[in-house]
Structure to design on (436 residues):
């Protein structure tokens, strides 16, 4: 059907939402607390497996409840509209805007290693504005750009991995378990490092946010989520092994541009600069994918709550332009006001609250609505969703203990959403009374 998002674009949205800032920056934040290389690989492997278990659950929900909005739609149906609104509020305010800001900042950092003299914020701001314009035009331009940019990003990572594996580098590592591996895996630094891994894997559920605009959603939503998650997990494990294999640990500790440092040892100084330039360009697809997905949540809120109805208006091509512009403005504000580390921590913690509630919803929905048509059933049910819930709760508990400031920011944003929901319901009732 014309005007619908096809499977390749839905898949590219998932992949592009996942492959972004996290994989090119996270290792530098993990190495100070985790000394064992096997534990590092285990960290990325666990992150991928848990994301895949979540993808199984989301695939069932996305096929059974094929309306755009992601958690906003699922949680409203499963629990109560207020729970859905809170997830939508988080998505509308920071859920996508914050990762856009983080990706734009990382893009600027990588670009400035090639062409010094420009601030990362300025470069990122220009990119956000340009992508906002492109994605506000129509599906064919936005979708085509998204698919091509994502394909180029995957090709770059594959090339990086191949050359990194073939490189006769001086760094010799072993990823076999050691006596320290278990101690590292069950330590607080490991749990806190899941913040960065969770951020890197976030986006595996992206196509569920645009379910209402995807062609044949009952097939293409589960397929895009599962294929995208499996592919990205394999790429993440391999590229982090390459980073560890090619660059000295001490040079990468606490550094954002770990890919640039690794590239210096693989391709030389000039080659590393070229790789950095390519990474900065291809991070554009990450930003673009979130500019596509995030505003659909804002649009759903506008359709369901009269006070936000102006945000649901579409242009002649069926694109929610006001929602896109609103999200981009928030991203620009965060780009200039928040640090990279703080953004990653509070967004990972806050989003984990709602992904946990959503996966729990698979159990609840099977009990409360057994008659619901389910074209796809969660693989490994009930074990896989239960493991997802256990690991996520463990991760959030350690963030509360180890990063209380960032966790409080996330909880504060959720609390603010509750206040806005109460105000929206009150104003909506007043409008209904006046119309009588």
């Amino acid at each position: 059907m014309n005007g619908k998002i096809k499977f390749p674009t839905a898949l590219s949205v998932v992949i592009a939402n996942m492959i972004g800032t996290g994989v090119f920056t996270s290792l530098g934040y993990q190495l100070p607390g985790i000394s064992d290389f096997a534990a590092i690989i285990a960290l990325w492997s666990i992150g991928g497996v848990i994301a895949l278990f979540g993808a199984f659950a989301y695939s069932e929900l996305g096929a059974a409840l094929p309306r755009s909005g992601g958690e906003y739609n699922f949680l409203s149906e499963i629990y109560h509209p207020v729970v859905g609104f809170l997830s939508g509020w988080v998505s509308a305010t920071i859920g996508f805007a914050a990762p856009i800001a983080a990706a734009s900042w990382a893009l600027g950092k990588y670009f400035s290693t090639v062409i010094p003299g420009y601030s990362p914020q300025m470069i990122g701001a220009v990119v956000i504005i340009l992508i906002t314009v492109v994605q506000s035009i129509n599906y064919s331009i936005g979708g085509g750009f998204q698919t091509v940019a994502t394909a180029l990003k995957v090709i770059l990572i594959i090339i990086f991995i191949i050359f990194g594996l073939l490189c006769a580098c001086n760094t010799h590592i072993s990823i076999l378990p050691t006596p320290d591996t278990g101690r590292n895996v069950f330590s607080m630094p490991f749990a806190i490092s899941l913040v960065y891994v969770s951020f890197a894997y976030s986006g595996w559920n992206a196509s569920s946010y645009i379910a209402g605009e995807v062609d044949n959603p009952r097939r293409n939503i589960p397929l895009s989520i599962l294929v995208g998650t499996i592919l990205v997990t394999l790429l993440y494990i391999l590229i982090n092994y390459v980073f560890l294999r090619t660059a000295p640990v001490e040079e990468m500790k606490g550094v954002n541009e770990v890919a640039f440092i690794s590239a210096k040892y693989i391709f030389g100084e000039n080659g590393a600069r070229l790789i950095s330039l390519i990474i900065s360009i291809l991070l554009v697809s990450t930003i673009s994918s979130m500019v596509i997905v995030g505003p659909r949540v804002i649009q759903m809120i506008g359709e369901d709550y009269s006070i936000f109805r102006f945000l649901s208006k579409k242009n002649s091509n069926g694109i929610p332009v006001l929602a896109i512009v609103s999200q981009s403005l928030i991203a620009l504000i965060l780009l200039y006001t928040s640090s990279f580390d703080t953004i990653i921590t509070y967004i990972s913690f806050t989003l984990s609250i709602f992904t946990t509630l959503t996966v729990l919803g698979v159990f609840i929905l099977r009990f409360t609505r057994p008659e619901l048509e389910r074209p796809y059933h969660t693989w490994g049910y009930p074990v896989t969703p239960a493991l997802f819930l256990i690991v996520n709760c463990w991760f959030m508990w350690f963030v509360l203990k180890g990063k209380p400031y960032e966790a409080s920011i996330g909880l504060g944003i959720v609390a603010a959403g509750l206040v806005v929901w109460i105000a929206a319901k009150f104003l909506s009732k007043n409008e209904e009374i006046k119309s009588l």
Observations:
- The chain is about 75% helix and 0% strand.
